[in-house]
């Protein structure tokens, strides 16, 4: 009974085009194409969407301006990411939400670590000053 044709012959009311929820599925042989028209999708050639393609219609200046714009966007995203790491509650407050207890605790830990590092740096400077040779 593992043969699909035998299963259909023994159960003529079995609907193989729909699943148990009633959703219709396309034939497996048309996968990768439009199920309504049964035509295959057209795929762009490899590298067709490259921003740095030298064969496109943009001028050199336009390509440089685009590259500069993309670089500035990447730097902005990196700065936002670093800011989010410094202030774990900033993302929630930017979205108008109250930060979670975990985010509040993380921010408190970051502040405590920064304060401790400042104290250690200050103590290190004082120690270096105390150990400097005194010239007469």
UniProtKB/TrEMBL annotation:
Protein name, UniProt field: Uncharacterized protein
Source organism superkingdom: Eukaryota
PANTHER family: CONIDIATION-SPECIFIC PROTEIN 6
Comp. bias intervals (Basic and acidic residues): 15-27, 48-59, 66-86, 116-136
Bias-annotated ranges (Polar residues): 1-13, 31-40
Region spans: Disordered: 1-136
């Amino acid at each position: 009974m593992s043969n699909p044709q035998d299963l259909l012959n023994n159960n003529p009311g079995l609907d193989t085009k729909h699943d148990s929820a009633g959703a219709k599925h396309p034939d497996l042989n048309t996968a990768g194409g439009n199920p309504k028209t049964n035509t295959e999708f057209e795929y762009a050639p490899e590298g067709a969407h490259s921003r740095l393609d030298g064969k496109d219609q943009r001028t050199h200046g336009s390509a440089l301006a685009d590259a500069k714009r993309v670089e500035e966007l990447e730097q902005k995203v990196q700065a936002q990411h670093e800011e989010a790491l410094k202030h774990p509650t900033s993302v929630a407050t930017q979205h108008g939400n109250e930060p979670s207890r975990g985010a509040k605790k993380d921010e408190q830990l970051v502040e405590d670590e920064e304060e401790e590092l400042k104290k250690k740096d200050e103590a290190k400077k004082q120690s270096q000053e105390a150990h400097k040779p005194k010239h007469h």
